[in-house]
Amino acid sequence: MSEQILNARPLLEVQDLKVYFPVYNKSLIRKKIGDVKAVDGVNLIITKGQTFGLVGESGCGKSTLGRAILRLYNETTGRILFDGRDITDLKGRELLRLRRDMQLIFQDPYSSLDPRMTVFDIISEPIKLHEKCGKEELRKRVHELMDVVGLPDSMMTRRPSEFSGGQRQRIGIARAIALKPKLVICDEPVSALDVSIQSQILNLLADLKKEYDLTYLFIAHGLAAVKHISDDIGVMYLGRLVEVSPKSQLYRNPLHPYSQGLISAVPEPDPDLKKEENLLSGEVPSPINPPSGCPFHPRCRFAASCGQRCYTERPELREAEPGHLVACHLFDKEA
Prior knowledge:
The chain has 335 residues and is of the alpha/beta class. The protein has helices spanning 3-7, 62-69, 92-99, 119-130, 135-148, 165-176, 195-212, 223-229, 247-252, 257-264, 309-312; strands at residues 10-24, 32-47, 51-55, 77-82, 85-86, 102-105, 183-187, 215-220, 232-237, 240-246, 318-321, 324-326. The strands form 2 sheets. Strands 6-7-8-3-9-10-12-11 form an 8-stranded mixed sheet, sandwiched between helices. Strands 2-1-4-5 form a 4-stranded antiparallel sheet.
């Protein structure tokens, strides 16, 4: 971690957060038969001004974690501290006031915008909800927001159906920063866009971070997108963080076998480059009935070398080297 980030104060602290969704049978007598363990004991600290990248395969709990932080999902257990305040049990007006400081950029730029509303209505909606603002001032602020995300003022009266995917995402970004929030959760904001547009949106997010002094939780499927924008990266598997590291360390020396597999799966543009084969095999286990011990052991090529510990004992996130945390028995110094 950089010295600047180490010395910064925490903006967000997640403490042993669990988000379980009950599963019921399909008979006439409704009965709970289990839980989907979407988030299963996550500890996370994001400092002010940091971009924290969160990666993992589909279904690992990334988006659920982001929505739980925003209090869109209720936690099962655990605490969420935002700017030094416990927000875990906030309700009503207190929760509404919190919304202006925490915003979300959605993955799908098509379904996240109301097709009946104009661009002006979409961007101005959070301002009208949280602030008293005259018509002229409101129009001026919307114009400034459109300008900063690269949209001409002439598009203010158009509706989402008249825009491309990249333009729609710019509208969503303008809406997210309209109240100058402290934290923006970017839930795979470029995964639905063409590759040529992805870099433009990532560069826009980086510029907005500097201009508005933003802090990002950037959620993505793979390591390619977060490498461009993140300071630190957390790798998530089956509801838990298995590795947390500065991005330079993670790409240079990934420690967890799952992280190594994710990096090996990133395609290289050079066809003549000899690359290690994809190290990930098998399917992600069910979050309803996760494996005992280390949740990654059914897919891990090192599980047999660790004896029975991988099958019976779940590893905790520990510091393997300065600033580099990993949950793997291979690096458990107490073993």
